[in-house]
Write a structure and sequence with these properties.
By secondary structure, the protein is mainly alpha-helical. Helix 1 packs parallel to helix 4 and helix 3 runs antiparallel to helix 4. The longest helix is centred in the C-terminal third of the chain and has 47 residues.
């Protein structure tokens, strides 16, 4: 009788683990979508939208962290402590392996898309920050050459970092 309870408990833990993996994929997809929207807003110079994107992103990232912590706890309860996804696949019974392999593959794909989306948004952010920097330097009267360098020589107020750096 004790084996049945352990089996049922393990099954519940396993089902919870599957749910967490699906939720992690969903959150990664949502964060990627926010990153894509942020990149579009930046490319269209709609900087006023950034605060909303950042708040959404922060909420999703907190949820992602919480889900991942839950995943780690479940993995430990299932005896998969510190195992990679491929090592987990080696430990489970063949009938469950294919479905879990598909879930892991989906999560991996969503994380790749998220990283790519984040990279694009970061590049757009860098472009906008660079443009703002150059515009500020133009307003201060600091020359900007065709090689995209700001000539700071001869401007004593810009040499503060030399004294304190």
């Amino acid at each position: 009788m004790g084996g049945i309870i352990v089996d049922k408990k393990q099954m519940v833990l396993y089902e919870d683990f599957l749910t967490i993996i699906r939720e992690l994929s969903d959150i990664a997809r949502r964060i990627a979508r926010v990153e894509e929207e942020k990149a579009v807003a930046l490319s269209l110079k709609h900087h006023e939208l950034l605060d909303g994107f950042m708040k959404k992103e922060q909420a999703y990232i907190l949820k992602l962290r919480g889900l991942d912590q839950h995943r780690v706890r479940l993995a430990k309860s299932l005896g998969w402590d510190s195992l990679t996804f491929s090592q987990i696949l080696d430990k489970i019974e063949p009938m469950k392996k294919e479905y879990l392999k598909d879930l892991f593959g989906e999560l991996e794909q969503e994380l790749k898309v998220l990283l790519q989306s984040r990279e694009v948004a970061n590049r757009m952010m860098d472009v906008r920050v660079y443009e703002l920097f150059i515009a500020a330097k133009h307003q201060e009267g600091i020359p900007y050459d065709r090689v995209r360098r700001v000539d700071l020589d001869g401007f004593p107020h810009t040499n503060l970092c030399d004294r304190y750096g």
